[in-house]
């Protein structure tokens, strides 16, 4: 197998930040949403806007000698330093009063839920970085702005998305295997990405780096977990399947979930991409019930999010 470090990959549309140190000399006017972080001394300058999507605008920023990435969530409301500085590791809801308030939808509850949503990504990043998953190093989440490591390639350019990298069969096999390992590592840490695709994976000189985790879910005790994992893993198979057709029929998602459920999944468990067919007749109704349940649960989540943002 060829390692990423030996053979540089080609990027179809390189995204410039050659030599970030030099570029940092030219800065842009500070966007309003980043101003609080500048005032708190968390960011020195904004170098440039990197991307603007539906949910967030991403900037390249300078913090002292470091160039970092600031992701500004669009729906965030202004909050005070003391409220917002509660960027947390571990549990998303700190106590049962908060959980009850969120269930009841009180004003306090809505504020809490919004904070939980905004902090979900930084929580997941902390958890995954600690588990050894290749994610950008998180620094903090303040006033709806996530400050994290800027993923860069060997030349100091902003790392390209997987969708922008030229692939061949060999490289596709290598990246697919590396990403399945990351998915397994994440699941061993109890997390499922939930929106894994070639657009939420960057490629640095050592291989794929996973980003964009606000919708990440806890695997344990979550009825949609197997369906989410299956979708993430199928997205990978479909993307790399263009170069490696045999991946299209693989069953890595089911295999990984079966091992996880049986308590047999470790970061090093070998995978085959096949699951042994059971002799027992399939309980089709149960499968349909499960799919319907997952759909309803997702719908409910979306409805709650829309309510929060209304
Ligand atoms: N840490 C990072 N380093 C480099 N680029 C990043 C980083 N985080 C995000 N980006 C860039 O910004 C884009 C949008 O970020 P993402 O987290 O996927 O938010 P969105 O919800 O808008 O998709 C990514 O596709 C990627 O190109
Ligand atoms: Mg994204």
Automatic annotation (TrEMBL):
<dbReference type="InterPro" id="IPR018935">
    <property type="entry name" value="RIO_kinase_CS"/>
</dbReference>
<keyword id="KW-0460">Magnesium</keyword>
<dbReference type="InterPro" id="IPR000687">
    <property type="entry name" value="RIO_kinase"/>
</dbReference>
<keyword id="KW-0418">Kinase</keyword>
<keyword id="KW-0547">Nucleotide-binding</keyword>
<feature type="domain" description="Protein kinase">
    <location>
        <begin position="44"/>
        <end position="310"/>
    </location>
</feature>
<dbReference type="GO" id="GO:0005524">
    <property type="term" value="F:ATP binding"/>
</dbReference>
<dbReference type="Pfam" id="PF01163">
    <property type="entry name" value="RIO1"/>
</dbReference>
<keyword id="KW-0479">Metal-binding</keyword>
<comment type="similarity">
    <text>Belongs to the protein kinase superfamily. RIO-type Ser/Thr kinase family.</text>
</comment>
<dbReference type="GO" id="GO:0046872">
    <property type="term" value="F:metal ion binding"/>
</dbReference>
<dbReference type="InterPro" id="IPR000719">
    <property type="entry name" value="Prot_kinase_dom"/>
</dbReference>
<dbReference type="InterPro" id="IPR048148">
    <property type="entry name" value="Prot_kin_PA4780"/>
</dbReference>
<dbReference type="GO" id="GO:0004674">
    <property type="term" value="F:protein serine/threonine kinase activity"/>
</dbReference>
<protein>
    <recommendedName>
        <fullName>non-specific serine/threonine protein kinase</fullName>
        <ecNumber>2.7.11.1</ecNumber>
    </recommendedName>
</protein>
<dbReference type="InterPro" id="IPR011009">
    <property type="entry name" value="Kinase-like_dom_sf"/>
</dbReference>
<dbReference type="InterPro" id="IPR018934">
    <property type="entry name" value="RIO_dom"/>
</dbReference>
<keyword id="KW-0723">Serine/threonine-protein kinase</keyword>
<keyword id="KW-0808">Transferase</keyword>
<keyword id="KW-0067">ATP-binding</keyword>
<dbReference type="InterPro" id="IPR051272">
    <property type="entry name" value="RIO-type_Ser/Thr_kinase"/>
</dbReference>
């Amino acid at each position: 197998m060829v390692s990423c470090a030996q053979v540089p990959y080609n990027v179809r549309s390189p995204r410039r930040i050659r030599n970030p140190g030099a570029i940092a000399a030219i800065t842009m006017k500070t966007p309003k949403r980043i101003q609080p972080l500048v005032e708190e001394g968390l960011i020195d300058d904004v170098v440039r806007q990197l991307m603007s999507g539906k949910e967030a605008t991403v900037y390249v920023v300078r913090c002292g000698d470091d160039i970092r990435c600031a992701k500004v969530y669009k729906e965030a409301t202004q909050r005070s330093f003391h409220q917002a500085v509660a960027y947390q590791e571990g549990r998303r809801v700190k106590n049962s009063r908060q959980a009850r308030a969120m269930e009841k939808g009180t004003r306090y509850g809505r504020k809490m839920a919004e904070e939980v949503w905004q902090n979900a990504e930084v929580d997941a990043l902390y958890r995954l970085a600690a588990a050894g998953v290749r994610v950008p190093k998180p620094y903090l989440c303040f006033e709806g702005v996530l400050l994290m490591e800027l993923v860069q390639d060997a030349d100091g350019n902003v790392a390209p998305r997987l969708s922008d990298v030229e692939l061949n069969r060999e490289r596709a096999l290598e990246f697919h295997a590396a990403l399945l390992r990351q998915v397994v590592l994440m699941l061993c840490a109890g997390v499922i990405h939930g929106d894994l695709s070639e657009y939420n994976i960057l490629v640095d000189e050592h291989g794929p780096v996973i980003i964009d985790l606000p919708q990440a879910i806890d695997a344990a005790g979550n009825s949609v977990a197997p369906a989410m994992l299956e979708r993430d893993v199928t997205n990978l198979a479909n993307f790399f399947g263009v170069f490696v057709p045999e991946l299209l029929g693989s069953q890595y998602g089911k295999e990984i979930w079966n091992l996880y459920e049986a308590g047999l999944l470790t970061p090093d468990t070998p995978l085959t991409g096949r699951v042994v067919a059971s002799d027992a007749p399939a309980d089709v109704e149960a499968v349909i019930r499960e799919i319907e349940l997952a759909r309803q649960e997702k719908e409910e989540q979306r409805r709650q999010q829309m309510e929060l943002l209304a």
